Amino acid sequence: MAKKHIVIISPALANANNGNWQTAQRWSTFLSARHDTRIVDSHDPAMAAACTTADVVIALHARRSAAAVQQAANLRPRPAIILVLTGTDLYRDIHTDGEARAALLAADNLVLLQSAGLSELDAASRARATVIYQSAPALPPVTFNGSERFFDVCMIGHLRAEKDPECFFGAARLLSSAPLEQPPVRLTHVGAALEVALGEQALATAAQYPNYRWLGNLEHDCARQILRRSRAMVIASRMEGGANVIIEAVTSGVPVLASDISGNRGMLGEDYGGYFPAGDSAALAALISKAAQEPNFLQRLRAQCDARATLFTPEREQASLLRLIDNVRSNMPG
């Protein structure tokens, strides 16, 4: 296949330290093995010029990259457009937001990051859709010997409504009044406060309940080491397109306690045993207690996560991505 010039349009760059940036950076690395690639901020004035020489434009996030997608679609000759749908795209914006819907219709190819999201698309959109699971390098799991001071449980993700950090705050409150575990449960929260009120709640929770600590925004490698040293990881989101943090937990041997939403089921499987109702702090607290008190339950979750790990290898993700680029076609005349 001939080398292509590929522009990746991302609504977030390195300073955001979020899932969109992690995807853009990783995909640029994967594609550079065979193609020329460049990452451009969706709001950068240089974006339009970059797209004029592109063979393929990959846009992350339908709503936030909608203007960029339309600009690329109006170019002549027109690059092929691949639109990557996030959780807020799939489970909200393409159903309610005109710009997101327009981006969906303008794209030649759609990428979903987990299979359950296909049910959110109409038949015409599903025909243009490919599922590509994201990946993370495997890290050797930590061996716990029973002498640990805490049963550590983490939640990693910036504090915003879609991630539902309030569910984690509530679980901390409930666990603080529960009979003491041996070792005691400690909840560690990593992520920047993208909503001021949620940051204030995190500070208040940490001040009132010693079993909860908020570390704020951390470098990616540091956050992953905290994840790796945890006994379980919580993802309490109300909507997800295919969370990187689930992949990083699975590939580090850390069981996941996940809100029961489509995006998490698409990652962990319909029969996974670690779901709790979204927004239900009491159910989350009960699940954390069960994980702390019942080693066999925690081991079952770990085994189920291990069984999903082959979906999340870098080799599989790179092969899927390169195959998509090899087969991409623009549906519009040049």
CATH architecture identity of the largest domain: 3-Layer(aba) Sandwich
Biggest sheet descriptor: 6 strands, parallel
Number of domains: 2
CATH fold assignment of the largest domain? Rossmann fold
Number of strands: 12
Q: How big is the Rg? A: 21 Å
Structure explained in plain terms:
The protein has 334 residues and is of the alpha/beta class. The protein folds into 2 domains: 5-135 and 313-327, Rossmann fold; 151-311, Glycogen Phosphorylase B (Rossmann fold), CATH 3.40.50.2000. Helices cover 42% and strands 17% of the residues. The chain has 14 helices and 12 strands. The protein has helices spanning 19-31, 47-52, 66-73, 87-96, 98-106, 123-127, 165-176, 196-208, 220-228, 244-250, 262-268, 281-293, 295-308, 314-327; strands at residues 5-10, 36-41, 56-60, 80-84, 109-112, 129-131, 151-156, 185-190, 212-216, 232-235, 256-259, 275-276. The strands form 2 sheets. It has a 6-stranded parallel beta sheet, sandwiched between helices. Strands 9-8-7-10-11-12 form a 6-stranded parallel beta sheet, sandwiched between helices. Helix 3 (66-73) packs parallel to helix 5 (98-106), helix 4 crosses helix 5 (98-106) and helix 7 (165-176) packs parallel to helix 8. The two termini are 20 Å apart. The model has no long low-confidence stretch (mean pLDDT 92).
Can you give me a brief rundown of this structure?
The chain is an alpha/beta fold and 334 residues long. 42% of the residues lie in helices and 17% in strands. Helix 3 packs parallel to helix 5 (98-106) and helix 7 (165-176) packs parallel to helix 8.
